[in-house]
């Protein structure tokens, strides 16, 4: 039995559930719906690694820039607090984050405590049915109006999609040791249509470094 | 380097572009020695596959010499001769572990585009749209190969490039099509499309024990190659021929045990439905022209199997699903799980069981590629397969 990702993961006690985090008393639990001022995203991935290793990778907050988009640096300021710097386009935002729950190999919950971003989240690591690997489920909340969310989507990546992409990068890093990329690479003149399409396909999002600790290729 | 770039529908140009570089530890840079134009490249040329961007380098059938490797690649070294599979696979996700390489979870950096269209994303492909990863293709002098420790097949014998090049796509694709057809000894198999994939599907169907293969096309040079492999051919463009009657006549009235659609989304039809699909795709009410798919569903015997190596991209109209259900047929399809077939098929080539180079009709330079895309589309000059030597100079 593990803790569920409930609607306010860091503000109230989570109910207990069967494995998978999206099941409550044998019933499928749909993700929380957006409210004004609050956006929610719940997503999960099946990763071929142990829950302990995945927990460790996630808990190594200073490695977050390797797999979280637009995060420039993370500095651990104490065993449970860290300082985050994010760059989106020309703007840089900073905030502090505090770990609220920490169950090695199982669960981490956190929330921002001051700064430019209001966010809270929870991630759980559970063995998939049939020994198929580990299910990583994340529920993240952004304190942000729908209008602000729409604006972020327009100028860069929708915050919800960023969480989905970050989990994809996390899985790739854990499974393959690198983050697949197809940029930069040779091409002919993109022209106007090619450049517009590039933005539409989110190819203006800066590329993650992948395993920065590994040094040169 | 020189590369063949997609610049818009029906517009392909050979341009000078920067050389590729290693981006990830498991990458390799390959100096390409031979590459080819695939039938599926025509879907890009004709503008049927979304998310192409001007300037994209085309090409997913290529081989060459390893030029450089990232530090995560220990099985290849500079100078090794390799054939590269067109599907890119990481080798460590659940799907790769299950050997469903074309469904690799990790190799498509633009997976979100494919998830939006298809629900889940397949593997990345070389030179085949941004939805499929946006990877630069191999109709060029050099290419970057991701997960080079998983995909490339080393060629250690002295077989010529032309004999092994088609292990990069069309030979395994034709073979998997025959395997997907679940052929049992003594079966009769009908194959629509006698282009390169159809050719290898015919050869593979015989390898897997088919007693009779019926090959359907309209181009005399392709039908002739099919007959040389031992197939019975049906020319659908002959006014006196009804394909459905022909396959019934050739199967004692019960229909083929298996059908293979080696045509895909740009089927040419001579009848009313051809006009219907042409009109609907032109006004964007339909994305694909599924003439062959409809016919094959109709033609296959009760409880038969329909294998589909031909590429489909989007929304299809008037597919007779009632017939598929009513006869209880099995449908099998999808991008080729390349990595399963390359080595066993190389063994067959080395043993002399098949020489895949028999389909080549034209050998060209990179500079000639734009002209030959047009020839390939128009099926002019008795073209059956175009191979490019990226280092050859065009005669003045």
- Strand fraction of chain A equals 25-35%
Mean pLDDT of chain A: 83
Helix/strand/pairing category of chain B? alpha/beta
Q: Going across the biggest sheet of chain A, name each strand in turn.
A: 5-11-10-9-8-7-6
| Average predicted local confidence, pLDDT of chain B | 96
Enumerate the spans of chain B where pLDDT stays under 50 for 5 or more consecutive residues. none
Helix content of chain A: 10-25%
Instruction: Please tally the β strands of chain B and state the result.
Output: 18
Oligomer: heterodimer
Outline type of chain A = globular
The number of domains of chain A is: 1
What is the count of β-strands of chain A? 11
Task: Please indicate the count of domains of chain B.
Answer: 2
Distance between the termini of chain A: 42 Å
Secondary structure tally, helices of chain B: 13
Biggest interface found: A-B, 39 and 51 residues
The general outline of chain B is: globular
Sum this structure up briefly.
With 217 residues, chain A is of the alpha+beta class. Helices cover 24% and strands 34% of the residues of chain A.
Describe this structure in words.
The complex is a heterodimer of chains A (217) and B (396). The N and C termini of chain A lie far apart (42 Å). Chain A is globular and about 55 Å long. Chain A has 217 residues and is α+β, with helices and mostly antiparallel strands. Chain A contains five helices and eleven strands; from the N terminus they run βββββααββββββααα. In chain A, strand 10 (119-127) and strand 11 (134-143) form a beta hairpin. A seven-stranded antiparallel sheet of chain A has the order 5-11-10-9-8-7-6. Chain A has one domain (34-206): 2-Layer Sandwich (Alpha-D-Glucose-1,6-Bisphosphate, Chain A, domain 4). The longest helix of chain A has 18 residues, at 159-176. Chain B is α/β, with parallel strands linked by helices and 396 residues long. Chain B has two domains: 2-169 and 337-388, Alpha-Beta Complex (Quinone Oxidoreductase, Chain A, domain 1), CATH 3.90.180.10; 174-333, Rossmann fold, CATH 3.40.50. Chain B is built from 13 helices and 18 strands. Chain B has helices spanning 41-45, 94-97, 111-118, 161-164, 170-180, 196-207, 220-228, 243-249, 272-282, 291-299, 321-327, 342-350, 369-378, and strands at residues 2-8, 11-16, 28-37, 56-57, 61-69, 81-84, 87-88, 124-125, 142-145, 153-154, 188-192, 212-217, 232-235, 258-261, 305-308, 330-333, 362-364, 386-388. In chain B, strand 11, helix 6 (196-207) and strand 12 form a beta-alpha-beta unit. Chain B is globular, with a radius of gyration of 20 Å. Chain B starts with a strand and ends in an 8-residue tail after the last strand.
């Amino acid at each position: 039995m593990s803790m569920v990702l409930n609607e306010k993961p860091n503000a109230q006690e989570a109910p207990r559930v069967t494995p998978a985090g999206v099941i409550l008393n044998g019933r499928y639990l749909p993700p929380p719906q957006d409210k004004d001022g609050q956006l929610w995203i719940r997503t999960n991935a099946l990763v071929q690694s142990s829950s302990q290793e995945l927990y460790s990778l996630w808990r190594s907050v200073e490695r977050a820039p390797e797999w979280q988009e637009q995060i420039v640096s993370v500095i651990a300021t104490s065993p449970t607090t860290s300082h985050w710097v994010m760059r989106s386009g020309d703007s840089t935002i900073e905030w502090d984050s505090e770990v609220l729950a920490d169950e090695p190999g199982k669960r981490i919950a956190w929330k921002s405590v001051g700064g430019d971003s209001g966010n809270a989240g929870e991630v759980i690591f559970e063995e998939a049915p049939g020994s198929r690997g580990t299910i990583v489920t994340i529920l993240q909340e952004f304190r942000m109006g729908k209008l602000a969310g729409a604006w972020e989507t327009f100028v860069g990546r929708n915050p919800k999609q960023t969480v989905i992409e970050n989990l994809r990068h996390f899985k790739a890093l854990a499974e393959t040791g690198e983050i697949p990329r197809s940029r930069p690479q040779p091409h002919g003149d993109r022209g106007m249509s090619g450049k517009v399409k590039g933005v539409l396909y989110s190819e203006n999002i800066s590329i993650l470094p992948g395993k920065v600790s590994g040094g040169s290729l | 380097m020189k590369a063949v770039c997609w610049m818009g529908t029906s517009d392909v140009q050979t341009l000078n572009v920067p050389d590729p570089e290693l981006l990830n530890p498991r990458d390799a840079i390959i100096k390409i020695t031979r590459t080819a134009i695939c039938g599926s490249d025509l879907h890009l040329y004709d503008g049927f596959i979304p998310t192409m961007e001007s300037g994209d380098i085309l090409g997913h059938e290529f081989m060459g010499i390893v030029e450089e490797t990232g530090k995560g690649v220990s099985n290849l070294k500079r100078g090794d001769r390799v054939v590269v599979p067109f599907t890119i696979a990481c080798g460590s996700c659940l799907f790769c572990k299950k050997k469903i390489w074309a469904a690799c979870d990790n190799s498509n950096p633009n997976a979100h585009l494919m998830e939006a269209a298809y629900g889940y994303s397949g593997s990345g492909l070389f030179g085949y749209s941004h939805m499929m990863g946006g990877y630069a293709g191999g109709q060029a002098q050099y290419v970057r190969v991701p997960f080079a420790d998983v995909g490339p097949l080393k060629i250690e014998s002295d077989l010529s490039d032309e004999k092994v090049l088609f292990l990069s796509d069309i030979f395994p694709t034709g073979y998997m099509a025959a395997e997907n057809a679940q052929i049992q000894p003594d079966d009769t198999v009908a194959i629509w499309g006698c282009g390169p994939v159809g050719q290898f599907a015919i050869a593979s169907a015989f390898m897997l024990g088919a007693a009779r293969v019926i090959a359907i096309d309209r181009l005399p040079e392709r039908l002739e190659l099919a007959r040389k492999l031992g197939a019975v051919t049906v020319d659908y463009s002959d006014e006196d021929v009804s394909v459905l009657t022909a396959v019934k006549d050739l199967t004692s009235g019960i229909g083929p045990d298996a059908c293979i659609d080696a045509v895909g989304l740009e089927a040419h039809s001579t009848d009313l439905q051809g006009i219907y699909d042409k009109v609907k795709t032109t006004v964007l009410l339909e994305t694909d022209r599924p003439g062959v798919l409809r016919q094959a569903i109709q033609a296959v015997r009760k409880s038969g199997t329909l294998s589909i190596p031909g590429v489909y991209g989007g929304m299809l109209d008037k597919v007779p699903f009632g017939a598929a259900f009513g006869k209880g047929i099995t449908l099998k399809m999808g991008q080729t799980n390349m990595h399963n077939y390359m080595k066993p098929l190389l063994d067959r080539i080395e043993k002399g069981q098949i020489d895949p180079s028999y389909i080549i009709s034209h050998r060209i330079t990179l500079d000639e590629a734009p002209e030959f895309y047009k020839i390939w589309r128009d099926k002019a000059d008795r073209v059956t397969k175009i191979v490019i030597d990226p280092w050859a100079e065009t005669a003045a």
